[in-house]
Design goal:
Blueprint (H helix, E strand, L loop, with lengths): L6 H18 L4 H11 L1 H4 L3 H17 L2 E3 H4 L2 H5 L10 H20 L3 E3 L3 H12 L3
Parallel strand pairs: 1-2
Helix pairs in contact: 1-2, 1-4, 2-4, 4-7
């Protein structure tokens, strides 16, 4: 993977994955989010930009499904307020990510979703995945 990661490719991949997991496999938003983290851990942890992009895009998909797992919701502010990724990618990708961060903030402000509680084991697994180095 090169230093510049295409934001639209990440976003499209997450949207497609959620559609597949929810519509075809019958997964919940929490299960879909965990599955994306598990399957894409290398790309996700490539740099601060990819980690933020994955986190924000997954959160948006969960908000669209009107339920968000607590392992996403509890750390969402960290990713919304992160500026670590500003030098990781090109300006267009960063601009698109900031647009989606704003969209995520708007969706979070609607309060028309449920926060789904996860087991300690599930939360630990996600923390582990997010701490891996590619």
């Amino acid at each position: 993977m090169n230093n510049n990661v295409d934001y639209q490719r990440i976003k499209g991949s997450i949207i497609y994955s959620f559609e597949e997991y929810v519509e075809e496999d019958g997964f919940t938003a929490s299960q879909s989010a965990a599955k994306v983290f598990e399957e894409d851990w290398r790309e996700l942890n490539y740099n601060a930009f990819t980690k933020t992009a994955y986190y924000i895009c997954i959160a948006i998909e969960c908000f669209r499904l009107k339920e968000i797992p607590d392992f996403i919701y509890d750390k969402l502010d960290v990713y919304i307020n992160s500026n670590e990724f500003k030098n990781d990618n090109n300006k267009e990708d960063i601009q698109q990510l900031f647009q989606d961060i704003n969209k995520c903030i708007q969706l979070m402000g609607r309060k028309d979703y449920k926060i789904m509680e996860s087991s300690f084991g599930a939360k630990s697994r996600i923390e582990y995945i997010l701490s891996l180095k590619p």
